[in-house]
Amino acid sequence: MGNSKIYSKIIYTTSPENELNQWIDKYEKGKVFIATEENVDQLWMPQFNSFLDKHFIRKVVVTSGEKNKKLNSVTEIWEFLSKNGADRKSLLINLGGGMLTDLAGFAASTFKRGIDFLNIPTTLLSQVDASVGGKTGINFNGLKNEIGTFKEPVAVIINSRFLQTIDPENFLSGFAEMIKHGLIKSPAHLEELENFNLKKIDYQNLQEIIRHSVEVKEYFVGHDPTEKNIRKALNFGHTVGHAFESFGMGQKNQALHGYNVAWGMIVELYLSVKECGLDEMECTKITNWLLSIYGKMNIEKDDFERLYELMTHDKKNEAGRINFTLLPEIGRIEINQHCNKELIFDALEYFRTIQ
Ligand SMILES: NC(=O)c1ccc[n+]([C@@H]2O[C@H](COP(=O)([O-])OP(=O)(O)OC[C@H]3O[C@@H](n4cnc5c(N)ncnc54)[C@H](O)[C@@H]3O)[C@@H](O)[C@H]2O)c1
Ligand SMILES: O=C(O)C(=O)C[C@@H](O)[C@H](O)[C@H](O)COP(=O)(O)O
Ligand SMILES: [Zn+2]
User: Fold this and answer.
1) What is the pTM of this model?
2) What is the ipTM of this complex?
3) Fewer Cβ in 10 A, N or C end of the chain?
């Protein structure tokens, strides 16, 4: 995958506490803090409690769920840090899924103009994607990740044992970002995902597959940390996926991020055929696979204008044009692809009617 210039140290371990020991030593006693969210606090914090006590690490717990990836929750973390005497040299440990690592990473990257943070991701999605690469942020104004920063954690500690308590839907949500990694860079990774038994998860094998996925992410982040160029590859499926996700925000059964990305990838694979010459049979094969795992979201023709409007907020856009990352073939990307409104509507119609 080539030399990575990623700033964070990525550590794979079965004993996060042992790894943490060495990191904590670099910081003054009483200046290390931990942020988590309710569900993870209940499920996984008990195993860390004596460690936290021993090292005088104080804890803040925010409310779980994507709808809490918002400014109020950031304020809670800022207040906690401020009241507990955090200074510029402090460390914040973020224990949780992508919602928490995005949120608390953002809080850390802005507190006193930025303090160190370390991620311990607890969902598949956060292990293969969200905790790595330094995109932090919150949703705002009905738009995904509208406010945020680029700041990499000092380290990411990955332990696949956390995944044993993940529900199947959240597992599949993370699996979608892995499929994205295979599609944009690694046919070999895609193949191992196609062969992965989702009904009977082999956690030992999974740890290795997670590593392959993270390597794809590291490659793009290492070469372009602030998404000026080829990091846009990692946004494949997200121009449309984020529009779907923002569209569903606040609805009762809001679909998980990875599901929206999977559906976004179906639309963007169609665009790849039309604009970049992706083989139609290849597109159909992957689309059918994605549909078999993720089903699909129901959209109406009347929704197309709103979805298009949401795409006009995508962060990759330039000069008023919607910017896509597309695939001329599996494992290769073309960034800065512009599709006209008519073609985007065609692609949405393809998605709406596909069985
Ligand atoms: N920064 C990035 O590069 C990046 C990349 C991909 C996604 N994201 C963001 O990540 C977020 C989605 O992350 P997510 O899918 O991890 O969601 P999440 O953090 O909301 O976690 C999903 C659910 O699993 C629960 N949970 C967490 N760890 C658990 C565990 N070990 N066992 C049981 N339950 C557990 C949570 O409480 C929550 O209910 C989105 O906001 C998305 O935009 C960011
Ligand atoms: O790391 C990246 O770069 C990505 O685009 C990874 C995406 O999976 C992730 O959802 C990211 O948060 C999207 O970022 P945004 O800039 O489109 O909000
Ligand atoms: Zn994503």
Assistant:
1) 0.97
2) 0.99
3) C
